[in-house]
Design brief:
Cytochrome-c3 Hydrogenase, chain B, alpha+beta, four-stranded mixed sheet, 38% helix, 17 helices, Beta Polymerase, domain 2, 2 domains
């Protein structure tokens, strides 16, 4: 269970700054909006990349009519989008945040849907078929020396700027994501990301579902990390309940996670190549990814939405052909992956489009919380499998792939090298899966002991975390998923400035975000 340190509202910013400077808490792992009934607040998960120390703090306000909390976005850049998300869903305004617009919902939406007292049937929110008005001004809450607060207007784009839309219906935004880009000639001056086109509502739905029912929703977040997402939620519930799964389940889950990682990286390769005009490479990636999907389908019954992990184990034992087919696939991919590099990696066009483009510094990667291949391409060793081992990752020998250039080419190479490491991990496990139960006996109605819990796994594109708060009922009080994609999209404005408009496509492709995971 997570021990949470409560910090009074008026001391929050000073205490956060002290933790950042003195304790080197430079990684804001997760920021979760909360409605505790009598109060609203925020839970912060912090980690030091220097010492590895982790801690959880929270702050709250009892003013439900006009809730205000100091912003920490001047300390951690990750807070910029996360605080906007909390404002969007809980109505908490952050003092000192430069951009208090909604992040996902329409600007004319009435109410805050994640609050416990929100009315989903409110007649003031009809089904609107018209486009919302694009607002180019935003409000910043400034603290006056006397302690009062004034609203200051900030301009996002003024009338003299030349602004174009990239998306939401653009194939290279990898989903319905809209970038408004201010251009000077072909160069990007600044960029505004609008994420609100999917509205999964998964976190809210979890509050009215039993624990086994919540599992089905995780596959639909980052659908290229379905096994890993569900692994994280199952592991969080199991740890909270003190359930030990068999070693057989640990092996199966780890192998499935790594197959999923290869599947995701093959799709990353295919789509990036297609974005840059290399269609042959696109077909290579899809041809070989199909082999993994066939393996998944045989054991799980699904190809994209797997529904395989369960609380206490897995849905069914592995198929009799599983071991043989996985070994054959690894031999096949190892023998053919040089073709990927022959056709694309060494290509002069690919090199010119990717090298030195969209550089993200290590400091910015940590500040934004851009984990996964993006963080490791900037020199940040952020792999959850090494930081907080789970499954059987402590029993296998593998390298954490790290590059230091931080550019688009480094982000590409990290993922290509990780395919090789995932195959290495699977090879060490596939012939050694122990005998044992594939599912522990669980009670028909699962209740998680009262408390707060956080568990993370290394997803296909970074740290996927689950924050769970339970009141001891058969349904969770609050579930928050640490999106792997939201930090990646929040970096786009920073790393695109000064680049060409065509570079935005290469940068977005190498960041490798998946949109349903962002708009949860």
């Amino acid at each position: 269970m997570n021990e949470i340190i409560e910090i009074p509202l008026e001391k929050l910013h000073d205490e956060a700054l002290r933790l950042y400077n003195d304790k080197k808490m430079d990684f804001l792992e997760s920021l979760t909006g909360m409605d505790w009934g009598d109060s609203l607040g925020v839970v912060y998960h912090l980690e030091s990349t220097v010492t590895g120390e982790r801690m959880t703090i929270k702050t709250l306000t009892t003013d439900r009519e006009n809730p205000e909390i100091p912003s920490v976005c001047d300390i951690w850049k990750a807070a910029e989008f996360n605080e906007r998300e909390v404002y969007d869903f809980y109505g908490i305004r952050f003092i000192g945040h430069p951009d208090m617009r909604r992040l996902f919902l329409r600007n004319d939406w009435v109410g805050y849907p994640m609050r416990k007292d929100d009315d989903p049937m409110d007649e003031r929110n009809p089904l609107r078929m018209d486009n919302e008005e694009t607002i180019d001004t935003t409000t910043e809450l400034e603290l006056n020396p006397d302690g009062s607060i004034k609203d200051k207007e900030n301009i996002i784009f003024d009338d003299r700027e030349y602004v174009v839309n990239i998306g939401p219906q653009h194939p290279a935004t990898h989903g319905v994501l809209r970038f408004r880009v201010s251009l000077e000639g072909e160069n990007i001056k600044k960029l505004d990301a609008n994420c609100g086109y999917i509205h999964r509502g998964i976190e809210k739905m979890c509050e009215s579902l039993t624990y086994p029912q919540t599992l089905a929703l995780t596959d639909r977040l980052d659908y290229l990390g379905a096994q890993q997402n569900r692994h994280a939620l199952c592991m969080c519930i199991e740890r909270a309940m003190g359930v030990e799964v068999s070693e057989r389940v640990q092996y199966i889950r780890t192998i499935m996670d790594e197959l999923q990682r290869i599947d995701s990286h093959l799709l990353f390769y295919s789509c990036l190549c297609m974005d840059l005009g290399a269609l042959t490479a696109f077909f290579y990636g899809f041809r070989d990814r199909e082999k993994i999907l066939d393996i998944f389908e045989e054991t799980c019954g699904g190809r994209l939405i797997m529904n395989y992990n369960t609380i206490g184990g897995v849905q069914d034992d592995i198929h009799p052909n599983f071991v043989k087919r996985v070994k054959e696939f690894i031999v096949y991919l190892r023998g053919i992956i040089h073709e990927y590099h022959d056709v694309f990696t060494g290509n002069v066009i690919a090199q010119q489009r990717l090298k030195g483009v969209g550089v993200l510094s290590r400091e910015d990667a940590i500040s934004f919380g851009a984990t996964g291949g993006t963080g490791r391409a900037s020199g940040w060793a952020c792999d959850v499998r090494k930081r907080m081992p789970y499954g059987v990752y402590d029993k296998v020998d593998f390298k954490e792939i790290i590059y230091t250039e931080g550019d688009s080419f480094a982000r590409y190479m990290v993922r290509m090298d990780e395919i090789m490491e995932s195959m290495r991990i699977i090879e060490q496990l596939i012939d050694n899966i122990p005998e044992g139960n594939f599912q522990e006996k669980m009670k028909p109605i699962i209740r998680v002991p009262e408390g707060s819990y956080y568990t993370a796994v290394e997803g296909s594109r970074g740290e996927f975390g689950v924050y769970l708060e339970s009141r001891g009922d058969k349904t969770p009080y609050r579930v928050h998923f640490r999106s792997t994609g939201l930090p990646l999209v929040s970096t786009v404005d920073t790393i695109c400035r000064g680049s060409k408009i065509a570079d935005l496509i290469a940068i977005g492709g190498t960041l490798d975000y998946v949109v349903p995971d962002i708009d949860r």
